[in-house]
Structures are given as C-alpha cells and as structure tokens.
Amino acid sequence: MSVEQALTIADLKEQARRRVPKMFFEYADSGAWTEGTYRANEEDFHKIKLRQRVLVDMTNRSLASEMIGENVSMPVAIAPTGFTGMQHADGEMLAAQAAEEFGVPFTLSTMSICSIEDVRSVTSKPFWFQLYVMQDRDFVLNLIDRAKAAGCSALVLTLDLQILGQRHKDLRNGLSAPPRFTPKHLWQMATRPFWCLDMLGTKRRTFGNIVGHAKGVGDLSSLSSWTSEQFDPQLSWKDIEWIRERWGGKLILKGILDEEDARMSLGSGADAIIVSNHGGRQLDGAASSISMLPRIVDAVGDQMEVHLDGGIRSGQDVLKALCYGAKGTYIGRPFLYGLGAGGKAGVRRTLEIIRKELDVTMALCGERDVKNLSRNNLLKDV
Ligand code: GLV
C-alpha cells in the first residue's frame, strides 16, 4: 500500500509501524505511565457530537485562516516533536518542506535530529522554533539567536517538560539517537531495510541542535540524560521575560492545561497559548486537552489566541477544537506516522487527509467558512 492509498491517519500509522524500527515507532506511539491521558486525548474527541444541518448552500467553502497573524491554508500546524529525523532520514527537513508547500506552519523541536540551520537550508518561508530551556543559559541564548538568524517567525516555549514523564516503552526499547548496535537494536533495524537505506544516505543521526553546542551531558544520544542533566527544573514565570526580550518576536506558550495558568499567561506578553498535556506524555492522569479547552477559552480567549494540541487524528477533531474556540490546532503523531510511512509524500498525505475531513465535515455541518465555526455547531458539551 502506498501513502496515496491511505484513507485515514490510522492507515498511515499502520504503514509507519511496518517501516520504522520499533524503538522509534513506539517513541511516537506512547504516553506516560498508564497512557491514560494519551488515550483520553483521543477518546474525548469522540464524545463530542456535531449538529447536522441541511439545505444550506455549500459552495465556495474556505478553510483559510490566521494563526498569530500568519496566513494558513487551514488552522493546523505541525507540532514540535523529538527524534523526528529518526522516523525517516532527514525527517524534519522533509516535513518542513511538505508543510511549506501546503501552507501550514512547521514547528521544529529543540530535540530534533536536523538542526535549525538544516531546516532553514531547504525552506524558503519562515518556520517556527520550539524551545526547551536548559540550565546552560549561554546555550539557550545562542539557540534563540540561531532561531532568529534562521528567520523563524515564532518561538514556541514548552512549559510542561522540565522533567521527563516516564514512558515505559522507551525504557524497555533502550531508545537513543543514534541507535545502539546491540543484537536487539540491530534486529529492529535489519527488519526495516528501507528505513536503513535512507538512513545510510544521511549524516544526521543525533540531536542536531544540541550535540556539539551544549556541554555537560553524559550520554549525548539519550533524551532522558539531556532532560535530567540539562533542562532547568527551576524555570518560572519570571524567565519568560528574558526569553521574550532576547527573542523579540511572536511568542507562544505551550503546555497550559489549567485556567489559572492561562490567566497568568495573560501578563507574560505571549501572543498565544497552546492548551496541551504534551500528548499525554508528561502528567499521566491529567485531563484531556479538548476537555480543558472550553473553560480556558472562556477564561482568556477574548484577550489572547488559544490553540490546542493532543489527540487530533482527523479533520473532524480539528473542527471540534475550532468550534470550542481554538484559533489553531497542532498535529504531532499524525504527521510522524505520515513521515515514517513515506517521507515528504507521507506528510503531504497526512495534511490532505485532515484537510478533506475538515472540509467535508464543515459542509455537512452547514458552514462554509472555517472562521465561522462555533459552539453552535456542536450538540452538547464534552
Ligand atoms: C519530548 O520531546 C517528548 O519526547 O515528548
């Protein structure tokens, strides 16, 4: 089956499972501890029911919108994800190109395999950069400056991962980039020959933004050593000020899941917040993103843009988030599955599937403009 034959994100997920070595596929397909919040993110979308409307003119529909003042062909950005260049060789570069061609924002993670400069070298429009704050302030300042020099148009500051939530699969799999050459890892790779061939053709196999730039880490290839040895567990609201000043551009705060934190973010000078529980990868037991969205929009939505990530697996999910007042949404796993399944063409297919589902759902709800969606299109609250 080719990526063009995939009809759903679930189809792409199954294709990726067959193409990507287990440790990297499962890195994407995992949540913290019991994975309860990971599952709730998806399940709670299914509880929301749409209002079916008929005999409404469905011609001239538009999905175009804006996120933080940038025109987007649909309000769906590519989320920052770690290890993306391990789902497919040069993954961040390919996904950024697919997003640019599609007219949606691409967000590069600090924990990416391809560096800021790599992604800049293959794109012509600004992308967004996600920042993790490390204890080595010089390194962080330098990272911000590198994102500025690359022309990034937004800084997405992640607030919910100063210590790493435990994902059992990663520990059991011995996740690292580059992978280790133990019999178990060699077997995982040997059974994925196309992945290996692509990987042999690139030199990008470890954390491109940080290896060689940050100091004081024991195991350079492990996410858990980077976080435990480098990330700053004292990060506070005060730090947002110096980050914002150094950056000087659009700032998005990612990881707000509580109304009180949402209200506190109003004074931070940020342009938007992302309602997020890190895809259920951090605080297991936290509420789903979509269930928290309505109250956060009610608390701050008239004063700043509220975006959402977590659990989106279809254009219908995007529509439901927009109905609850999100001005933008992010897809993480859906694009990783597309990427793992078929590189750039796979990411394009992910975006096409979501766009089609969003468009048809909007029409059957009796709406023609994505900007007009509201709670009025929903049958009842989550
Ligand atoms: C962080 O980048 C993660 O693995 O969730």
Class per helix and strand makeup: alpha/beta
H and E string:
HHHEEEHHEHEHEHHHHHEHEHEHEH
Oligomer: single chain
> Termini distance?
36 Å
The percentage of residues in β strands lies in 5-15%
- Strand order across the largest sheet: 3-10-9-8-7-6-5-4
Keywords:
382 residues, alpha/beta, two-stranded antiparallel sheet, 16 helices, 10% strand, globular, binds glyoxylic acid
Structure in words:
The protein is built from 16 helices and 10 strands. A hairpin with a 2-residue loop joins strand 1 (65-67) and strand 2. The two termini are 36 Å apart. The protein has an 8-stranded parallel β-sheet. It has a two-stranded antiparallel ribbon with strand order 1-2. It is α/β, with parallel strands linked by helices.
Give a brief outline of the structure.
Helix content is 43%, strand content 10%.
Topology:
Blueprint: H1 9-19, H2 22-28, H3 36-47, E1 65-67, E2 70-72, E3 76-78, H4 84-87, H5 91-102, E4 107-108, H6 116-121, E5 128-131, H7 137-149, E6 154-158, H8 168-173, H9 183-190, H10 193-200, H11 223-230, H12 237-247, E7 250-256, H13 259-265, E8 272-275, H14 289-300, E9 305-309, H15 315-323, E10 328-331, H16 333-364
Parallel strand pairs: 3-10, 4-5, 5-6, 6-7, 7-8, 8-9, 9-10
Antiparallel strand pairs: 1-2
Helix pairs in contact: 1-16, 5-16, 15-16
Bound molecules: glyoxylic acid (GLV).
